User: What shape does this take?
Amino acid sequence: MNTDALFKELEPPLGGAERFARKLDEVAATRPSPRRALLAAAAAVAAAAVVTVLLLRQPSPEAPELVAEEPPSVDVYNAPELDRLLGRSSQPTELVVTVNAETVAVTELASANQKVRIYQIN
Amino acid sequence: MTSVDKAQWIDVYRRLEKPLYNVVYRVIWDSAESQDVVQETFLRCWRRKDDIRAEGFKALLFRTALNLASNRRRRARLWRVVGVEVLDEVADESAADHALSKSMREALDGLPTALRDVLLLTELAGMTYPEIAVALGIAEGTVGSRRTRALAQLRERLDVQGVVSHEY
Assistant: This one.
């Protein structure tokens, strides 16, 4: 008996390649193609995006309802108080002074500074 | 799968079936099972074909084949433990067909797996030491030292059994 036989090359059973080809066809038929897998992934992402958008668009019941406030009845933009802020030249206005909700008369006194006006309540 | 792709895989199968079969056969000692393992090896690699690099392909094939063969051998032993003879009956018959005696089979089976795998790949797979090192995940120098130890242990076992082993 010779130990060379232990590593002697043996012939595999015949028809192995043909059997392998058949198995390859079977496996390939059941395996999803990369293109199909890509399309499925894209569809899943699109569906998730749609669901997210729908959820975001629906107001939650706890959220306070936002209502635009009524615009102020006065013409704030043209108010003389904003002349300086908006770079407009001031227009002279009549001074009205109220004391205890009653209009009182005032007398303008002389002022050394042109930018300062002094009034005396009568 | 394109027809070119399929043809290439079948071509590679034809080229590597024999060395793979010879390696696997020395693990599970059954002709039909060995061919089945070789085919399963190729199918597994085909499923991972997009991740496989050409230079590591051969190593991957043999590593996969050895793993699958070892799994089948363990399963067969388990069945034997519970009283069902699976591979043993067939194995003896196949071994006789291939002129491999039971004592030779037992000597090889008795080797530690790490040594046996190196010996099978150096003697039957036609692989270089670097290729075997990659396949088994060991250092290149370890391949040589394991082969030497494997042959020494094999010689010892065969001498004990009265089988001439002076060829080594």
Q: What stands out?
A: The mean pLDDT of chain A is 78. Chain A touches chain B at residues 1-13, 16-17, 19-21, 23-25, 27-28, 31 (CB under 8 Å). The first helix of chain A runs from residue 16 to 30.
